[in-house]
Fold this sequence. Notes:
Blueprint: E1 6-9, H1 15-23, E2 31-34, H2 36-42, H3 44-52, E3 57-63, H4 67-79, E4 84-88, H5 93-102, E5 111-115, H6 123-128, H7 135-148, E6 153-155, H8 158-167, E7 173-176, H9 195-200, E8 205-208, H10 210-213, H11 218-229
Parallel strand pairs: 1-2, 1-8, 2-3, 3-4, 4-5, 5-6, 6-7, 7-8
Helix pairs in contact: 4-5, 7-8
The structure holds cytidine-5'-monophosphate.
Amino acid sequence: MSDSKIIVALDYPTANAALMLAQQLDPQRCRLKIGKELFTRSGPAVVETLVKQGFDIFLDLKYHDIPHTVAKACVAAADLGVWMMNVHSLGGGAMMAAAREAIGNATDRPRLIAVTLLTSMDQNTFEQIGLQGTMTETVLRLAKLAEQSGLDGVVCSAQEATKLRIQHEQKFQLITPGIRPIGSTQDDQHRTMTPTEAIAAGSSYLVIGRPITAASDPMAALESIEQSLA
Length: 230
Ligand code: C5P
């Protein structure tokens, strides 16, 4: 198991492309995130292969269903040997608690985190689905619900991290995407933070995709981020 704060987003359409990138990285120096596209195309096999290679895997499938179904999906993910998985907090407290109970209490159990509001959600969409109040208040409320339901943390933007860190102690993990090292392109991300800024804002783990995966030397890009954090 790695002690790295860096989770590399393996956003690839095929297992081959994902495995080729992983080959260029050191499992002691980063963890990997597998999301819906790669998982839907390549299935559990790519997760199992990377786990066998020694990588800690964050399975980012954002489960959201009735409590029983989500609990069973979480057990299935735990059986794959993943290090971290997530559910969508809008599924409610009973769903999150069922998921948490299902993965048990062994010391090597996977970490279970929640998505609060997707950062792609704007005020219009927020109101369209009948949510009220401000989006920030809602993120804080959903994060509190996740903690009360026994979850280990939430995915959040680095901008939200400062406020969440006031509400939650250090052991509640904040996983932040939208990270861009100084000098790298923004791509389609808005309101990004550098790795150093995100950690200072209270982030526990940084999800970083293209600044590492699109680099001509991914390991060198990872090392340069490590050095900026040292
Ligand atoms: O390449 P990049 O660093 O932008 O990748 C960020 C990763 O984090 C992608 O897998 C993206 O789907 C994910 N993510 C995000 N913003 C969120 C939640 C997840 O960028 N709010």
